[in-house]
Amino acid sequence: MPVIWVLNGPNLNLLGTRQPELYGAMTLGEIEAQLCADGRARDAEVRCFQSNHEGVIVDRIQEAHGRAHGLIINPAAYTHTSLVIADALAAVDLPAIEVHLTNLFRREPERQRSRSAAACLGVICGLGGQGYRLALAALLDHLKEGKR
């Protein structure tokens, strides 16, 4: 059974109340519950984590090595600044998909670049909570095909 870890960065614990006109009305708990249900439907285990602290996110990425088969990550604002998260993703050599609720390319210029994307299989952005579900499906398909 594949195990997928979902890692969420700063302020995503405030989803549903934080700028719903931008980030939507779904809470992080609702997104996570849907992902777990989707995982069960595909005979996969989904484990979700959230932290507002960069070092904790790096620790989780490192802990995933040997414990998870793949990662879904929304580094939030760390997307644009964190070389250490990008380095950790590259170091663990697990297939990862980066997800963003909003379309980065319709945001402010400083939010239009991702430091971590190069260490990921792909990036899904601008589709709200649905992006996580698409990332899970793509990651499980990738693993099923026996790819790394």
What is the helix tally? Answer: 5
Largest sheet: spatial strand order: 2-1-3-4-5
Shape label: globular
Number of strands: 5
Number of domains: 1
Beta-strand fraction estimate: 15-25%
What does this structure look like?
With 148 residues, the chain is α/β, with parallel strands linked by helices. The chain has a single domain (3-144), classed as Rossmann fold, CATH 3.40.50. Helix content is 36%, strand content 18%. It has 5 helices and 5 strands, in the order E-H-H-E-H-E-H-E-E-H. The chain has helices spanning 20-23, 28-41, 54-64, 83-92, 130-144, and strands spanning 3-8, 45-50, 70-74, 96-100, 122-125. Strands 2-1-3-4-5 form a 5-stranded parallel beta sheet, with helices on both faces. Strand 3 (70-74), helix 4 and strand 4 form a beta-alpha-beta unit. Helix 2 runs parallel beside helix 5 and helix 3 packs parallel to helix 4. The chain is globular, with a radius of gyration of 14 Å. It starts with a strand and ends with a helix.
List keywords for this structure.
alpha/beta, Rossmann fold, 18% strand, 5-stranded parallel sheet, 148 residues
Record the SSE blueprint.
Layout (H helix, E strand, L loop, with lengths): L2 E6 L11 H4 L4 H14 L3 E6 L3 H11 L5 E5 L8 H10 L3 E5 L21 E4 L4 H15 L4
Parallel strand pairs: 1-2, 1-3, 3-4, 4-5
How would you briefly describe this protein structure?
The protein has five helices and five strands; from the N terminus they run βααβαβαββα.
